[in-house]
What does this fold into?
Amino acid sequence: MADRFTIVDVRAHVVDAADSGGDYHKRSSGHWIADTLIANPMSVYADYRARRTSWGIGALGSVVVEIESADGTIGVATGMGADPACYLIEKHFRRFLIGADARDTARLWDQMFRASMFYGRKGLAMTAVSVVDLALWDLVGRLRGEPVYRMIGGAVRDELTLYCTGPDPARYREQGFFGAKIPLPEGPADGPAGLKRNVEVIAAARAAVGPDFPLMIDCYMALDVPYAIALAEAVRPLGVYWLEEVLHPDDFDGHRTLKAACPWMRWTTGEHEYTRYGFRNLIAARAVDIVQPDVMWCGGLTELIRIAALANAYDIPVVPHGSGAYSYHFCITQPQAIVAEYINISPDGRDIVPVFGGMFRGESLPRNGAIRPGEAPGFGLDLDRDAVRLRRPYPA
It folds into this structure.
């Protein structure tokens, strides 16, 4: 007879709806995330500047993975990658999972990673590994009757301080958040006039929140080294708390150059980096002040813990990108996780709503700019099948 921790089934579903799930970009029209002008890697092409969705940022969409144990307990997690991720999970990773002990998260992660290296050490392959890993942690927590954060060390503080990402920093100050992160609207292709407009946008945000409210700027891999230095110098009087992800994630030398040129600015990156190997150069070179892995992309919780251990050795804070409850369970166990991110996904960016939309019952919401993971087992997220349409494209 199989032990209750034995995995007996794995099911990967596509979420056939916008506004729910782990793909932050899969939002309906009329939504600030889809419609806001933000400098990005495609900003050099005029046809793809107006809306982020125009160049396919939300083309794939969300995935939901269920992992079932021998006693019928089901762990669940969401991520991104839709049909391609489902294919990898059902047609490749399934062989490592069926019959395995769900508690063997390190071995299962290593097998998925090693087996997929010939087609993807970053990007889509790692997002597929990540969502499986998160579902495993959720399953083990449910089987043990414990929240994930207690299984990885327990809380080091009573609650998490949050900053809010969205279009209305004054609103976020009223709601009690630590600070606000806004998108940079223009990039190098817009020339000196675009740089001037960027400074005007940031100055207006600073005027709206006053001098003491931390203000971060999301540059979304859009800039080059000379432009990033010019921007940092131009906004220095405005007290920007950090400039985020200004360069292509592979430009390690560029990050070192920025830190040397403007040591007074906090430089952050990591949202689009993957695994401890991707973060090693950034951390060892002290090229950034804060690293920002996304736990739904970088390799899941198993790999995020390793990335954090590496950063800890260099006294570099880890502030994960988004990820809702998955990030909160990690951050509350980390003394160096000085703040956590809440991405506002309400249509106008003003109301506090669940990060994953209507997908889950039990998703905790910030109160007065802070949050604490609950005591429900796993990540405390129960799939609401009445609220989302799921499609399993590759049934076993």
Q: What stands out?
A: The chain has two domains: 7-23+60-145+385-391, 151-376.
